[in-house]
Amino acid sequence: MTSCKTTGVGFEYERAVARFVLESENSGTIVTMPVSDVRIQVNPTAILTEFDLESVAVAEVELGQCLQFMLTRQASRRFYQASANSQGRRMVLIVNGQPLGLHPIERPVSDGIFYVFVEIPDADLSDLANNLRGTSIEIQNKISG
């Protein structure tokens, strides 16, 4: 990948397009996690994309480091409904076409903030968060004019 620097973004990043897909019970596409080799059948239609991200950051939680995603207000409302209807399933983070992480949906997400453990070294989390954030800002800036 090549780095890009956009005036509206204000920092360097590599393009990282995020898609979030839900685990499917009966049909769908099989994705395989890169380190654990966990195979998950998912609905290929994304429920969240880079258009929906307000911010991405590295977070330290009880189980270790992960990515914290904060959704836009509109996406938060949609995701609340989707998460309420999908309890017990897993949501998969796909970046540039590659599955990288999982978020188990245990309850409805009402605040638009959720955490994803990704299967990359902790040392690379900051770069991934930066790349996801930069891509999201760039795309949203282009849409808003």
Q: Can you characterise this structure?
A:
This protein has helices at residues 73-85, 125-144; strands spanning 3-5, 12-14, 18-22, 29-32, 39-42, 48-49, 53-61, 64-71, 90-95, 98-104, 113-118. The radius of gyration is 15 Å and the shape is globular. The longest helix is centred in the last third of the chain and has 20 residues, at 125-144. The strands form three sheets. Strands 6-3-9-10-11-8-7 form a seven-stranded antiparallel beta sheet. Strands 1-2 form a two-stranded antiparallel sheet. A two-stranded antiparallel ribbon has the order 4-5. Helix content is 23%, strand content 39%. It is of the alpha+beta class and 145 residues long. The chain is built from two helices and eleven strands.
Salient structural properties:
145 residues; alpha+beta; 7-stranded antiparallel β-sheet; two-stranded antiparallel sheet; 2 helices; 23% helix; globular
Give the SSE layout:
Blueprint: E1 3-5, E2 12-14, E3 18-22, E4 29-32, E5 39-42, E6 48-49, E7 53-61, E8 64-71, H1 73-85, E9 90-95, E10 98-104, E11 113-118, H2 125-144
Antiparallel strand pairs: 1-2, 3-6, 3-9, 4-5, 7-8, 8-11, 9-10, 10-11
